[in-house]
């Protein structure tokens, strides 16, 4: 897609959404201070034989890794789950399971490597936003997120643990040089990927978000930077969201236009 076409898509989407900067203007301000859930965008992607992580980015779209959902069927996502010890009333803040209608992956995704490892899950219904269910911010125009910064947050479900009720927990990651990923993972990453790690051994969680806090209009928000693709021990490889903005916007806008024309 050319930059001119992408510019037209962005303009159409922003006119439709009434937002000048974010894919979904309903992404929360200062989610760390949210009395209900610090990660209202976190999704658990549930498959018949495994679970992965995902992130709500729009009212009917969750983003995850392609390797999680490639050639899979009967996909559901769980939204609104967080530490039940913090819930004042489970009935007041219920979680929600939604079936996936369609899965979008880049046409040049190859399951034998980790390039273009990203997927959009179109849900069968629009999500009703509540205090504990909100989309993460995706920055669209002007300057983008500074992926040159060294520190990120990664909420993880810790799916390898035997939790009765899993809930996402904050983990701090630091950016690593790409050649370190090449040495640790035995692959040759490019600019469409981000290498990050933690000082202690962590479980690898496909589809988990790499998040950066940004300041916009003197208010803090959390923006999606990457989607975990692969990792071993304390080194993980992420798909860089900035490299796929055109693809993401193109699909979201196309679905919006189709739905609006139907109804």
TrEMBL record:
Residues 15-253 form the Peptidase S1 domain. Keywords: Signal. The keyword Magnesium does not apply. It comes from the Eukaryota. Residues 1-20 form the signal peptide. The keyword RNA-binding does not apply. It holds the Pfam family Trypsin. PROSITE patterns: TRYPSIN_DOM (PS50240). PANTHER family: EG:BACR7A4.3 PROTEIN-RELATED, PTHR24260. This is Peptidase S1 domain-containing protein.
């Amino acid at each position: 897609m050319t930059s001119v076409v992408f510019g037209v898509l962005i303009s159409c989407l922003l006119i439709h959404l009434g937002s000048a900067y974010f894919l979904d203007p309903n992404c929360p301000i200062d989610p760390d201070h949210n009395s209900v859930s610090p990660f209202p965008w976190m999704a658990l992607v549930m498959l018949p034989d495994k679970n992965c992580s995902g992130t709500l980015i729009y009212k009917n779209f969750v983003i995850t890794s392609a390797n999680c959902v490639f050639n899979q069927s009967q996909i559901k996502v769980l939204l609104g789950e967080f530490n039940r010890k913090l819930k004042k009333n489970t009935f007041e803040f219920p979680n929600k399971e939604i079936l996936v209608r369609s899965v979008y992956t880049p046409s040049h995704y190859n399951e034998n490597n980790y390039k273009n490892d990203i997927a959009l899950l179109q849900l069968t219904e629009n999500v009703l936003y509540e205090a504990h269910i909100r989309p993460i911010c995706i920055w669209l125009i002007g300057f983008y997120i500074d992926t040159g910064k060294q520190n990120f947050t990664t909420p993880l479900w810790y799916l390898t643990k035997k939790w009765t009720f899993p809930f996402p927990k904050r983990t701090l990651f630091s950016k690593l040089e790409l050649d370190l990923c090449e040495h640790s993972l035995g692959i040759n990453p490019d600019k469409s990927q981000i290498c990050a790690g933690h000082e202690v051994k962590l479980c690898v969680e496909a589809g988990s978000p790499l998040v950066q806090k940004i300041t916009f209009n003197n208010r803090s928000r959390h923006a999606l930077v990457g989607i975990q693709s692969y990792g071993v021990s304390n080194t993980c490889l992420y798909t860089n969201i900035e490299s796929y903005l055109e693809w993401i916007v193109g699909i979201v806008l196309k679905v919006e236009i189709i739905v609006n024309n139907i109804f």
